[in-house]
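Q: Start with the shorter request: fold the first protein.
A: Done. Sequence, then structure:
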Amino acid sequence: MDTETTESIRKRVNKRLQDSSDGVDMEAPIRLLSSETVYRGAIFHIDDRKLALAKTDGAEVPVRRQILVHPQAVVMLVHDEVQDKYLLEREYRVGPNKFTYGFPAGLMEDGEKPEVSALRELREETGVVPKDEQSVHIEHVGDFYSSGGMTNELAHIFVIHLSAWKQGPRHFDKDEHVQSTWVTWEELTGIGIQAADSTIAIQHEEIRRLRDELAARK
């Protein structure tokens, strides 16, 4: 049976959604009326935007939103296939205001492909470098907005399987402090990771492990 395309599903479902409209035409483009940067930091800035949403009768509805404009990011769950262990990090996160567990992650550079950025950030934060191209397999889990209601930050999430790797030096930013170690699957899933992007990667890897376990039983 042929798999239905995303576009055809969207077309069918969007019609049903449009039938529930309060007058706003969500098939029409959104018009930007103005945008003012009200805060600028080292990594992100905040814009105050006024926009116009089209109505089905041809009129417009004005709305105002604040957006945290942030570079795209990469997040990697790294798996040592030989030891069957995973790379865990701990560092200070200002959101929860505590030292939290997570995975190697970082910001993409302009023009950089996500897979290239992932291996670069892995090398810089942990010193872990694949032995060669044949010793690394990168699974693309997906691309997810961290909070679509407030920021355009898009996280590219990967699971990186390594059959051979070497340890090199780590390179941190001036105010960056990161601990890292290899842990078992039981330690990884039991330590209490709360970051949404890391949790998505764990769930993806859990499905793979279950699939492999079932296949081994046959």
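Q: Next, the second protein, separately.
A: Sequence, then structure:
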Amino acid sequence: MTQDQTVASAAVVIPQRTTEGDPFTLVGGAARGHAPRTLLLAADATAALLGTVALTSPQRHPLLVTGFLVLVLALHRAGGLYRRLDGRHILDDCPSLAARVVLAWCVLTAASATLPGLRQIPLRAVVTGCAVHGALTVAARTLILWRHRTALIRRPCATLLVGPEAAASRVAAALQRHRPSGIRLVGIVSGDTADRRPDAGEPPVPVLSSAADVRRAVIQNGVRRAILLGSASAPEHRPWLHSLAELRCEFWELDPDPSVYVPEQRGAEIRLAGFRCRPLTGAAHRLHPGKRALDLAVSAALLVLAAPVLAVCALWLRVSEGPGVVFRQERIGKDGRPFTLLKFRTHRPADPLESATRWSVAGEHHMPWFCRFLRRTSLDELLQLWNVFRGDMSLVGPRPERPYFVMKFSETYPGYGDRHRVPTGITGLAQINGLRGDTSIEDRCRYDNAYIDTWSLWGDLTILARTATEFFRPTGS
């Protein structure tokens, strides 16, 4: 592969989980623990369904059984039985499980006795079904929790400790002595190495004091978690939080010193080698189903309405400029995944290197008048409606960029990698505020993240309406 091809095809955004010599990969930093919790849901539903076998056929009405399953899962979720499994034991959950199973069967019995068309369930069938349901639930959850603990020991999570070196060394030694914690410490991230006491001894893991050392440790060891000693808002954590967040690490807070004061939300706590620990809410952004529905409806309608315009533009370009009417280029979308963006070809780069690394052709003097017209009116962007319809993009979101520039901007502008929490878009908050073409990347990044943090469906409609009013403008994208 030539150098030009390498630059054009490299999909480099966020360095993560790679080995020395391999190209950087794009990942979304999925949180651990989702698979065991999915298994718990399936086990609870199966146990509840098998418990209804104790009922006779007239009593097992499909709607009644379906409602019973939904009730059981809702009660378990309300009781926090699907939270993180770290440090959990089946005996801890037995009282809550027993109470919710009994409550669900009481509701089922009352419903069968009061709803028309259903037969009352005998007491013997209720007791038998409740016992079978409870026993199967406890047995299945015991197996799942045992497998989860075994997996934590066999495949511990690569982790960094962030905090003062003295306290971090003490916590690191304790975590290394406690294998069931599921932690494999890679290093201590601390900027106070100059204040190390002479009698402190060597720390149990390497101390990382520079951003380059932290990035290298994360990439080479596949680090997925950063444990912050004390509060995440502590001043000593600020230099590291952003770089670790861009490397897609999940954050936990750990109290290194015992205290009689506990947080108000104790349900979110777990114990890690005896330390009080709390997973922090990640930066994951769940897309509202209305956003995708809006994308499908509007893109489909616009593709139909704009079909004559697209046909005229394609025909004119084919006659005046020759073959290759559609321009295809790799861009970076949600969670760093590459996709092929479509546009009308208004410029022919000299080679793949120019296509991948040239920032703008807005000042190109040799561009034909029709191509310049397409760019000035943004008609060359209409083909991206097909990207929206396919799901590669959204109508509203941060503008997608090429891998070369995403890598470059991620290293230069804080928060640039956070733009990839949502699908990229044809237009966005930055664009309706005049940030198009060769404008400030720092300002675009700030507007894009503000759009994500304050998203609403009405906000998308507002941006689309403002974009429509500015469709014909003197400068192109």
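Q: Describe the second briefly.
A: The two ends are 32 Å apart (CA to CA). The first strand starts at residue 157 and ends at 162.
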